[in-house]
Amino acid sequence: MDAPVLASTTTERAASPAVVPPSTDPDWWRTAVIYQVYVRSFADGDGDGTGDLAGVRSRLGYLRDLGVDALWFTPWYESPLADGGYDVSDYRAIHPAFGHLRDAEALIAEALELGIRTIVDVVPNHVSSEHEWFRAALAAGPGSPERERFWFRPGRGATGEQRPTDWVSNFQGETWTRVDDGEWYLHLFTPEQPDLNWNHPDVRREHEDVLRFWFDRGVAGVRIDSAALLVKDPALPEVPENPGPGEHPNTDRDEVHEIYRSWRAVADSYPGTRVLVGEVWMPDPERFANYLRPDEMHTAFNFDFMARPWDAAQLRHSIDEMLAAHAPVGAPSTWVLSNHDVTRPVTRYGRADSSFAFAAKRFGVPTDLELGTRRARAAALLTAALPGSLYLYQGDELGLPEVEDLPDGARQDPMHFRSHGVDPGRDGCRVPLPWSGSSAPFGFSPPNSAEPWLPQPAEWASYTVERQEADPTSMLSLYRAALSIRRRTADLTSGEFDWLDSEPDVLAFRRGSGFACIVNFSHRPLDLSGRGTVLLGSAQLTGDGELPPDSAVWLAL
Ligand code: GLC
Predict the structure, then answer these.
(1) How far apart are alpha carbons 227 and 119 in whole angstroms?
(2) What is the rounded distance in angstroms from the CA atom of residue 9 to the CA atom of residue 29?
(3) CB atoms < 10 A from the CB of 457, how many?
(4) What is the pTM of this model?
(5) Are 552 and 538 in contact, with CB atoms under 8 Å apart?
């Protein structure tokens, strides 16, 4: 067995070219590494304490050095930010706190010069209550054509005082709000996010125009928010107790696929591959894969894998199930450890229950961050070695923990407020990134700026990019090394996937003929003798060359 190695940042960075020309491969999205930028919290260029496009532009070199192929920007549009920007008031304008349309255009072009594509977020299920269509609908009153773009209904009961249905919101609580003239409108999320009526031709036309607006500006794809919710049963029945496939009145209705077929036609009318990436939360793998048929979306987030606990059997089952579900439709799987909605992996994997479920989020759940970090490092190597595309949420490459002790006054997430404070909400994974220095704002904003919009913990001094760049054992160095190896190892992108024989609490697989990944979930170090040459480890091997518990290794065979 060769000496154990943790790849050093310097070696790996020297190996990657300074400028990577954007690949012209029409299949680029099948194996891409896509970095999710939560704009508000990435980098603040103008000193107002809120991240912006100038901040992103100033850090593009960091993203190139990290080795990502594309950036997915959470909504950067004009919005009252009632739900962090997923309440869009104008899809063609940039939020003034983030910049202007010309900044977005410059950013798209500059990123492309560094070989990085741009994916924007579209939010078709709802708009902001400040959107001109909704304002017009309110002003025009009951029975008006303006109201038909939404779901306005009279209430039940003698005076219409009862909600039209008892549907429960994805953010808890009711889904209908009554307006002054007595009608109610539907919102599957907050009242500031009225649902659109996708049976209305204006709604369809407008969204296709919005796609073209961004494709015309050079974006390589769109991430589709809440993609399974768009179509509602117009009879508005109650949700049956155990709805069969396609029977739910507001989720995963069969008619929704027609929308994505027409979007695919729009995407395919552009040169290069413009991708549709769906946010599809769907427990049934077959129903999930329906969205990925060849004339619909290209890929969708694999939340099944993300939600599983740190457990070899469960993760293996999920990998098998997801690969099997994708195969018949010819789509690649995606691998996702987190995003702006879920608990950061180092915190989650350090808990007794390391699975993820929105309904289970509570304050005061103990975590062992050292253990969680070890597992998150192993998960990074596991996911980067699986076949398909990889999503990396900003800050996970730094191993940032969830911020669980934000002051009450700082919290902003409607999920927290709508649960009456029981659910901590999603602010804890949205805290501005630490770039440099030893005290807040850690280089997030220029000197003498306004305070960051969410406060950063003092301990983040040890998580800064500056600190981690100088440390070959840091999470950042691990990610850089892994993405660099992934980029230049054909087996990792195009090699067949096969499980290798292993103990029950170990996952071992081969990619192609020359590469293997082994993850040790057990409590004992794992003998690696005769297995291959270590390319990269998530932890230092033991003196005997064994793989410690909760760690992973990449091997050349
Ligand atoms: C998606 C987004 C989430 C948002 C919700 C409503 O799930 O990821 O952040 O709150 O849709 O738009």
Answers:
(1) 16
(2) 26
(3) 17
(4) 0.96
(5) yes
